[in-house]
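Researcher: Quick one. two chains, 544 residues in total.
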Amino acid sequence: MDSYFLILFTEVYKILFLLVPVLVSVAMIVWLDRRVWAFVQKRRGPNVVGPFGLFQSLADALKYIFKEIIIPASSNKLVFVLAPVVTMTLALISWAVIPFGEDFVLADINVGILYLFAVSSLGVYGIIMGGWASNSKYPFLGAIRSAAQMVSYEVSIGVIIINVLLCVGSLNLSDIVMAQQNLWFVIPLFPMFVIFFISALAETNRPPFDLPEAEAELVAGYQTEYSGMMYAMFWLGEYANILLMCAMGAVLFLGGWLSPIDIFPFNAIPSPFWLIFKILFLFILFALVKATVPRYRYDQLMKLGWKIFLPFSLFYVVLTSSFLLYFDLLPGK
Amino acid sequence: MVAHSVFFYIFSLIAIVSAVMVTVSKNTVHSVFFLILDFISISCLFIMIGAEFLGMIMLIVYVGAVAVLFLFVVMMLNVAEQKGQWFSSRWDGGTHIPVGLLVSLIIFFELIVVIGGWKYKPDLLNSLSINISTEVTNTRTIGNVLYTDYILIFQISGMILLVAMIGAIVLTYRERAGVKRQSYVKQISRERDEGVDLVEAERNKGVKIDA
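Model:
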């Protein structure tokens, strides 16, 4: 019986060791997002609470905790409360498979990339549940828009992942990183990296694809009826998802925890820091896009997903596989 | 093994209860949510017996895509209202109930066949000659079988799905007149000469501009 408790305690310890930094960095990343956004627009951004405004997110969190939670009278109460919980949980459980270094991963499962894909495809439910349970026009329209958008862009992300898997020959995330020791996949698969980046923007409902929350048309989309901590949970889940997409991009294309060149000053830095640098790099790109690009129209969004990205990434699958076959580079022989 | 069986019973209990709740719950949207819960717990069971690839594909395909469509349909069409009509006393002779009865009868007989197969389970297990190695991941094992021995069946099923998809699109497609469409090529390739048209306007008559 003791061994069970020992395993339980070590696992809980490991999970906390992963989740607490993720949650803290989600709070920090919100601050970074607002700062980058402000600097692009020649504003100052949040700079009052703490040095450089670093504690702004903590102040916001306190504010959310002490606000009243309002549950609309005609809403479906159970589903209404469940929706932010689902969003938040799904955003956090995906971090289990992200490898921060060799043998530095919570769950080194064989189908790591499929797990990430499956969990991110479940993310739609938090939004649909929230939109439906609010029993109000704007949330419902926002939820439908968001679900259609996420399902569409998941397809192209799936095909892009197939491109990477063709070059690796394994579904394990650590294997994917190790396969990039000589050459990061961003170089041979650069068009796929660009499409992955744009699809990740759409998948996480970031601008310019933030139609589910288009203020001018839908107030705040599926979040309209939420207040206090429940709203904050949606918000945390959203940012945790954005970070996760950045981590996925770093693992699939930018060599995960590997240093760019394997010589002294670079490979002395511990591997988790490299992954964190890459995640931050991608996140700053996300923030710059948010600050510069205007919002898409809905039909343009769908056209981009289905008529441009999907055929192009399918074509690239054929190209990659025929290249690998012709030069006899197919892995796993 | 204790922990293993505890988790097995938890997941199977959730699966059975949610399967019952799919049919019992009055609200159709709740039914779909229970169906999703059922799918998730069954894919957990798949993962527990080591079929991790099947479990994940189950999550991606059924929960990530099919159930979302179910939910859309249930939310958009007011199914609850129609259900009330089917079971009301003034039933207008629709075909729902006979067809439903037929389908459930077929499924019932299939279940009898499956349960009958249990009797031969020990013999079947003994005659299993495939030795499953734990060294190779089961994704690779499935691929090795699917793309070599069963490639024809695999491709035919793919073709059938494609035909079904195109058929569904053709059946629901309607050409709507008077819809303004945007063509990027047309917009970008517009020159000044075609864009601006100088017209000599006659006094008191105006100009007729065709749209």
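Chain A touches chain B through 27 residues (CB under 8 Å).
Researcher: Thanks, that's what I needed.
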